[in-house]
Structures are given as C-alpha cells and as structure tokens.
Amino acid sequence: MHTLLTVAFISLAASMNDPGADAAGPWIELIGPKDLGPWRQPQGDWTLASEVSIDSKDPQRLVWKAGTAAAVNGPQGKTKNLISTQEFGDVEAHVEFMIPRGSNSGVYLMGRYEVQICDSYNAVPYAYPGGECGGIYPRWIDNQAVEGHSPRVNASLPPGQWQTFDVVFRAPRFDAGGKKTRNAAFVKVMHNGKLIHENVEVAGPTRAATYNDEKPTGPLMLQGDHGPVAYRSVRIRPL
User: Fold this and answer.
1) N or C: fewer beta carbons within 10 Å in the chain?
2) pLDDT digits (tens, 9 = 90+) for 154-176
3) Could you tell me the pLDDT band of residue 11, with boundaries at 50, 70 and 90?
4) Inside any domain, residue 8
C-alpha cells in the first residue's frame, strides 16, 4: 500500500513539474521500538507502553502495560500535544491510533492541517463537515467552521481497536519572496485501508493548529489534550 501511495504522489508531483518528484526519502520512525526522543520537550504526561486496551471498569479510558511499542497520553487522558523535532514538507505518513469510547484526538501535518480522530463508529453525521473520524478538520473563521471535508466513507472501527491512517501530503508552495503560490493538499488519505480523501486542498491551518501561519516545512503533531489516545507505528518519509 505504501508503494501505491508513493506512486500516486510522484505522478501528481511530476505533473506539476516539481523538482525531485521521483525521489522518496527513507522512513523515519517517530513512535516505534525506541523512545520519545524524536519529539520536542516538554512532553507532558505521554508515556510508553507495550499493550494498550480499554479499561474494563470505564469504557471511556485506556489502560496499558509499560513498554516501548506505543505512546499513551497519560493517566488523565489529557496532556500536551506531541510535536516532532524534525520538520517536513511533502511526505507520506503512516499512523496507528487507538481511542476509547467518545474520545478525540488528531494528526496535524506540518503542525497545521488536521486529520481528525474521534469515536465515529456507528456515529450519526457530525455537526459540521470534517468533524468525523478521518475528516479534514475545518478552519475556524469568525466563530464559524469553514472548509471542512468529511471522509468519503465511515471507515471507523469500534473503540479499543487499533486503526490506521496512511496519508500522502503536499506542502504549500511559495515564491522567492515568500508569497504562497499554491495551497497545501491531502493528495490521498486512507483510513483502515479505505480511500477517504483524494486531492483535497486546504487554504490555511485548521482549528487548534500549533501555528496559524503557513511555511514550506513543519513538524508532525499528535493532539494530546482532547481525550485519551494511544499511538504506535508512527512513521513518516519525505517525498
């Protein structure tokens, strides 16, 4: 699947005459078999775990065993966001996550553009487009949600199961003077192996972004302040 996603991005990039469109960097493990070293300090209550599951006494919480395979956002289920030390532009990203019932988180490309995580299993339509799990979250202008994008299908699994996002993302483009010449875009987003977005542009940072400006590169951000969540096998590579 990673190969197919990469080919899709390369074909699009080549059509835009982007230099280096035929090159992809190595995978960079951000949460894997090591530690939280790839993430900026302070890291709040994020802790490493081996096994994660829903608390049998409270379906809205997670429990875990100590280890190094996953990262959990602490006993309160609410702490600081994780922000990668390394910054990226055009990328392919793979993220695995788990939430309990009713929880909420998000994956922010460049710290600015969110793919929403929430409990959407058998859920009714959200109050506004992009609020569903897998949605490209809206921007927030004049107290209004604008430019949100709902997923094509609801691919959510039940709470307590590991789920995956596979994303091919194109960073915004700027001229020599720093003026933006092209919006950022989610070239392709897969949720649990199902296509949920293709060639969706975002005109600016989505709500609750780390930064409100736009630049050629930025960090990956995992939201930790909205509810209990665990992440594992988070990896990214430049395209």
Assistant:
1) N
2) 999 999 999 999 999 999 999 99
3) very low
4) no
How far, in Å, are 78, 123, 145, 195 from residue 69 at the CA level? Answer: 20, 30, 36, 27
Side-chain-side CA neighbours of 222 within 13 Å: the count stands at 33
Q: Specify the CATH number for the domain of residue 63.
A: 2.60.120.560
Residues 27/29/33/36 CA torsion (nearest 10 deg): 170
Q: Left if phi > 0, otherwise alpha if psi is -120 to 50, otherwise beta: which for 193?
A: left
Q: How many Å separate Cα 131 from the centre of its chain?
A: 14
Residue 20 belongs to a domain: no
Number of domains, the chain: 1
Confidence (pTM): 0.89
* Amino acid found at 234: V
Q: Is residue 1 included in any domain, yes or no?
A: no
Encoding tokens for residue 69?
């395979």
Asked whether 160 and 230 are in contact (CB, 8 A), the reply is no
Domain that holds residue 35: 25-238
